[in-house]
Amino acid sequence: MTPVRIRVDRIVDFGTIVSLVGCDIEDGRPVAVHVDHRPFQAFWDAWQRQGFPQPVEYDAGRLTLTLDVVPDAADD
Questions:
Q1: In the chain, where are the structural domains located?
Q2: pLDDT at 32
């Protein structure tokens, strides 16, 4: 898996899911990262009840995720 660095342009809060919308720093392609912050077990139970196949999981190994949310100067 290749690491991706993104510039986040918008953070959209849907309550249980937060989406980070931006673009890849190297090639400018659009990127959206959806973070579901419900307890994982509740998500997994609902997934299984719907009969969905087991999701693919990857070992995060050396994952580094840093989110510094700084308000725009216009928001001050």
A1: 1-50
A2: 92
